[in-house]
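Sanity check

After download, print the first record. It should look like this:
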Amino acid sequence: MKLFLKGVKCETAKCQVEKRQRNLAPGMHGWRRPRQSDYGVRLREKQKVKRHYGLLEKQFMRYFHEAERGKGNTGQTLLQLLERRLDNVIYKLNFAPSRKAARLIIAHGHIHVNGRKVDIPDFTVSLGDKIAVKRSDRSLKLVKQQLESNPNFTVQNWLQLSRETAEATVVAMPSREDVQIPVEEQLVVEFCSR
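Expected structure tokens:
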């Protein structure tokens, strides 16, 4: 399944998922694919979410336990927490071509949240937070170049972007419809709860 981890490369013919050989499992006997167990199905869903957001196991389980403590549906709360990560927000604002590149932009100190420099990619944004690019020529050039490379990009409803000043505001909390990966969060909850 395409997770769009490589940015623009996933939209071209170079994408590995599009090639015929990727439909087979690795190895000499890839054409024989046994039926997956219930455990395998749930594990695959969890791995899909982890790889989509670029998390390690310990980070993912920290988010899961935080979602478990919260009120409401655990699966939807988990996805909402993951959507609110700063590296994901930078990617959703089209400041970076991929989540990996967004992590790099944040780690190098190009992003300010509410007027303060933030260099931690897993920083969680809240309602009303103002996200801006550092006021240096290098930072602005980096982000403006990315914004101009994709002029038809539309920002999700829970974010408000000003393209001229390269600033954004979180105007609402992300909903389940804002999560673009086809994942069954209930299977992830079942796997992590055992």
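If your output differs, re-run the checksum step. Summary of this record's structure: The first helix runs from residue 38 to 53.
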